[in-house]
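Example 4.3 (complexes with small molecules)
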Amino acid sequence: MVRSEATRICLAKHSDKNSILEFCQHTWDNETDYIASVWDLWSADLSGYILVADFNGQPIGMIRLVQLSTTEGWWEALRVDRAYRRQGIGTKLINAALDLSHSLGLTTVRACVSVANTSMHPLMNRQGFKPLGNYVVYSAEATDSAPTALKQLRPQDCERVWATINRFALEEGDRLFVVRGAKWQALTPEILAQRLKQGWVWGVSNGDGLVGLFIRSQMENPDGTFWIGWLGGTQTGLSLALEDLCSLAHELKFQAVGGFLPQSDSLLPLTKAVGYRVSDASTYRIYAKSLDKA
Ligand SMILES: CC(C)(COP(=O)(O)OP(=O)(O)OC[C@H]1O[C@@H](n2cnc3c(N)ncnc32)[C@H](O)[C@@H]1OP(=O)(O)O)[C@@H](O)C(=O)NCCC(=O)NCCS
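Answer. The structure with coenzyme A bound is encoded below.
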């Protein structure tokens, strides 16, 4: 039996790729793992660190930590070779990601776990991660019509857009938005200003006020879907935004709209009423852990 003490955690080397992709072919029983499709992209990304569990020179596990801002980190892609599970390697990889976060000066680390992945939730609790809420993937086809309600907002709108976000985001989890292939990050006025400059923020107005707001996101591998990073508004504002997003997606040459949005009793009927599908199989619980300053 492998002891976790005999396993070293180190940064991934180019030569680890084949062994890792080999055991990742068996990650799930009935699903293909996505690690092979992102490995090269991740290896070249300077904001991310792939950590490998090495047992006698053989890679038997991995985790990736991404630095999202000066204070926030995100870990993902925790994998342990089936032959070495239940020997403390997963725990050791999470601890290594937390140690690295600490040494980078990060004060918050988040991660998401599929609700269906029942063995992971006790591990997250044991590691001191607190659940922030469940998110579900909503999706709809792009529709061949011109957007009428959503208008692109400009950098000079920053102050009123920030005030609108604060009006609609009442809890900590509401002020998180989705970036770079489903990583959750806190919205700040600085990030909002960047997104406005990129032309990635749209609003639905009613008179002088904003009643709906949408911030765009994207996957690390662009996939033809127009991704929602954050959505907020009144019931009417949200309905108008959700419907119009399908037209906006078409105008911008995407095939579909998708979003990881809160699994809330108020949002579900609204999205369904305007033709969105909700995939119950893809419900994710977001966790956060605060770290002391390094
Ligand atoms: C999840 C995974 C990384 C765990 O790796 P591991 O090395 O087996 O984890 P550990 O040995 O450190 O287990 C720590 C705890 O997790 C829980 N756990 C892990 N696997 C479990 C299982 N199959 N059933 C029930 N609980 C389990 C237990 O609480 C365990 O503690 P215990 O052994 O003292 O009871 C591994 O099973 C894996 O690669 N699974 C597929 C990919 C995956 O689910 N990744 C996580 C995505 S967020």
